[in-house]
Amino acid sequence: MVKVAVIQFPGSNCDLDALEILQKTIKVSTDLVWHKNLKLDEYDAYVLPGGFSYGDYLRAGAIAATSSSLETIREATDKGKPVLGICNGFQILVEAGILPGAVLRNSGLRFVCKWTRLRIESTGTPFTKLASKGQILRIPIAHNEGRYYLDKDQLAELERSEQIVLRYVDENDVPNEDSNPNGSLDNIAGICNKRGNVMGLMPHPERASLPVLSPENYPEGRIIFDSMVESLGGSTGGK
Amino acid sequence: MTRSVIEEPQSLIMVEVQKPNLTDEEIRYAVKKLQREPNEVEWAMLEAQWSEHCSYKSSKPLLKQLPSKGPRVIVGPGFDAGVIDIGDGWVVTLHIESHNHPSAIDPYGGAATGVGGVVRDILSLGTRPIALLDPLRFGSIESPHTRWLFDNVVRGIADYGNCIGVPTVGGEVEFDPSFERNCLVDVVCVGLGRKDKLVLGEARNPGDLVYLVGGNTGRDGIRGAGFASKALTDKSDTERSAVQVPDPFTKKLIIEAILEAVDANIIQGMKDLGGGGLTCGLSEIAAKAGTGIEIDLNRIQTREPNMLPAEIMISESQERMILLIREEDERKLVNILEKWELGFAKIGHVTEGGLLIIRQGNEVVAKAPAKFVAEAPLAPRSAMRPRYLDVLAKVPEPPLPEDLDQTLIELISSPDIASKEWIYRQYDHEVGIRTIIRPGQADSALLRLPNKSSLALTTDGNSKHCYVDPYWGTVGVVSESFCNLVAGGAEPVALVDHLQFGDPGNPEVYWTFKEAIRAISNYLKALSVPCIGGKVSFYNEDSTSRRAIKPSPVIAALGLVDPKTPRIAQALRKEGNDLVVIGNTSDEMGGSEYYEHIHKLTGGRVPRVNLKKERTLLRSLLRSLRSGRVESIHDISKGGLAIALTEMSVQGRKGVTVNLDKVPNKTSRIDNSLFSESRSRFIIETKPRDITRIVNSFKRLGIPAAKVGSVTDNGIEFLSKGRSIIAIPISEVSRAWSETIPRAMEATL
Lengths: 239, 749
Fold this sequence. Notes:
The complex is a heterodimer of chains A (239) and B (749).
Chain A: E1 3-8, H1 15-25, E2 29-34, E3 45-48, H2 68-78, E4 83-86, H3 88-95, E5 102-104, E6 112-120, E7 136-143, E8 147-149, H4 152-160, E9 164-169, E10 188-192, E11 198-201, H5 222-231
Parallel strand pairs in A: 1-2, 1-3, 3-4, 4-11
Antiparallel strand pairs in A: 5-8, 6-7, 6-9, 9-10, 10-11
Chain B: H1 10-13, H2 24-34, H3 40-49, H4 52-55, H5 60-63, E1 73-75, E2 82-87, E3 90-98, H6 100-105, H7 107-124, E4 128-138, H8 144-164, E5 168-175, E6 184-194, E7 209-214, H9 224-227, H10 248-263, E8 269-272, H11 277-289, E9 292-296, H12 309-314, E10 320-325, H13 330-339, E11 344-351, E12 355-360, E13 363-369, H14 370-374, H15 388-393, H16 404-412, H17 421-424, E14 435-437, E15 445-448, E16 454-461, H18 463-468, H19 470-487, E17 491-500, H20 507-527, E18 531-537, E19 541-542, E20 547-548, E21 552-561, E22 578-582, H21 593-598, H22 611-626, E23 632-635, H23 640-652, E24 655-659, H24 670-675, E25 682-686, H25 691-699, E26 705-712, E27 716-720, E28 723-728, H26 730-748
Parallel strand pairs in B: 4-5, 9-12, 17-18, 24-27
Antiparallel strand pairs in B: 1-2, 2-3, 3-6, 4-6, 7-10, 7-11, 8-10, 9-11, 12-13, 14-15, 15-16, 16-21, 17-21, 19-20, 22-25, 22-26, 23-25, 24-26, 27-28
Helix pairs in contact in B: 7-8, 7-10, 8-10, 10-13, 16-26, 19-20, 19-22, 20-22, 23-26
């Protein structure tokens, strides 16, 4: 049976949200695992949830990136298991060097919480498998440090190898300055590693997975979790 | 995360133990009760605990007037938070706190630790904090000092609330010159838990161990309670050591560790350490149960060496909790605390006999009955109706504006009315995956509950009304809270109040305080809803200008929405729909935004509430909402009918055409009909086929209701006597409404 781990760091605060959605909405067997207790063989996929691990002291995600659990995540990555980093989880994966680039302070220098429109740029990851290229997902963001950055050559490389998975877009589905909530390079909202099995994104799909919490009752964020379970060959809770 | 670090030379924060800051009567009472002169440590403890902040010595007898019982009330006033039974084994907890004085001198740290404090209150009951709301009051937004306070208060709340993962789902802001130096920073926190896991702040079992958990004890926040119990002065800036240092990360660990311990059923009693520090926590938890507590100060981890016993006993260092556990559960507790890497110390145990005994090693440094420490002698206060009220009642009417289009634009640009998006964008209002109705979408926030019903939350105040008429102003504030809940489809269930005034020793100030309590009490009795707790904050005045703040009772109320009630927001839905106004509009312009902002006029008649009809009105409104015939709804409050319609219009990006002559109206002037803030009124959007049923359902009960216009694809238009008196494109009002606050704040930054 497929089993997912949501990793809990001190200061994680979207851990219970991700757990609830995976267990009750996606209906996949999921454990909340204290970061020190994470073991490689027990799980088929890993979710690093949002929050302020270690208070985001030093830099967002920097201290959690030194947790022994990240060694396990690295091994899981090498084995091709799906790894999803949401918000602070994304920051941790970047700080650990598992995903490229850096996530900097928002260009507006303030925390931003709002619903965003995201365009699927790549379906080559286990988290976007069920989506189609160009599909729009409405998912909220909430962060202080979400400005994705990397240098020009690396960006070109990222683009070439289809590692850009999500971009912020406007009402007409165009990525531009108006629709960019944090100054992210090229409106990037989510990326994956070369192999495609590790994805990090700033928006919170778990907050857009229940109809009652979503615009016009369309829970467009759950496709990320549904895709993950589908890619593992498991069945999901249906829509 | 930025952190506010405050360092002060030690000399400023040594405690002057020789001269207790107590009144002569209090000193005599203490000596008489103890039958000896208290020592230095005891004086320091009494000074902290008997401050207004901890003891409620000026307010206690009056607060008893408030109805506090009800079928859903599990815990009422007198504990860290009120507890409401929401069914199916679940409870909701509610509390409100302020951090006014600290925020006035260190807005970032003061606001952040204010959040921290109220979150601990909710946690103390063994419930998980699930929502915050922030009512804020500042001076004029034109003032650079106000903008500095406003900016940092919002950042402080945001950084703290966001980090601990509790969503900030609502709030309100008022700007008025009376808050220029003494801003009001209130925080409401709501908790959720299981009824069978509730923990009380009572040391019931002698022999239980006392654990101090969380941060170390330092010299920050020394005498914070005393600092909060006097007026701000020119020298207040030097008291920054009275402001605690926020550490939301540690708070987050405490929340999770304590909830894990609550879940394991090992906590027998619990108390957060806030104002008055260990003195307050230990004396109250023992006094509540009639037991005593003995502790050893040498076991407490201090942040700096050589802290005096008195300093340890009154330090208000943040992120600390007192836990009482049975000896056999010690290992379990320690395992949990070690997992979360929290500091902790076993500092003593619960005793029989009611004595609070503070030892340092073998030496007893303080010894007094816990009840004696916990319960300050009451401070009798006299009350006198302020003379200014008569002057304000008789202000002449202002001239009728020539250009009402311009008036509407100016009014919607008033910072009291303008969009608060600049604030709530900075707050994570989604974390916890419960937020159904978000800030700015409707009159109250709505949260998903585990038992299928949902929880409506609102917080309201109106200092401008309360200044001109403390009684009717306060009635109006409670009414507004209830109207907001009902507009959200909720049945009002309970409230907490926060009464913020100047120096209670001033009879005129004390009179306004009494009137506010009488008002809340009368309203709640008429509606049969309990007050389950609250807070009093006095000395909100600036001794330099000798000016007290305007009376500022603030209400936080909660209601329950049954699963069948549809979700209804305030944005207009569809062109061609009809608009209904419910309730009567009168010449009640006193304290209105129209008088204050447009005419710079303070005074007049403040809106009144018909307490006999309020319940019928709210009930029939709830029935309409449940019938599914309401497309959108907004209560009419600040800025009156014209502003409420404009807000619905801007949010729905639809126009309105309204005939003012059709509005149920007793006003003598056209501007009064547009901008009067008469209470208990609503605008409802409904489909044309439902209009007759909706209107009749109110009229049948004697409640004024009429179709006044319809939703259009044009701008905002008001007609009277066959001609257009206001016609403005939506884009214009929309811009005015959304740009006011960001523009003012960007100028600062």
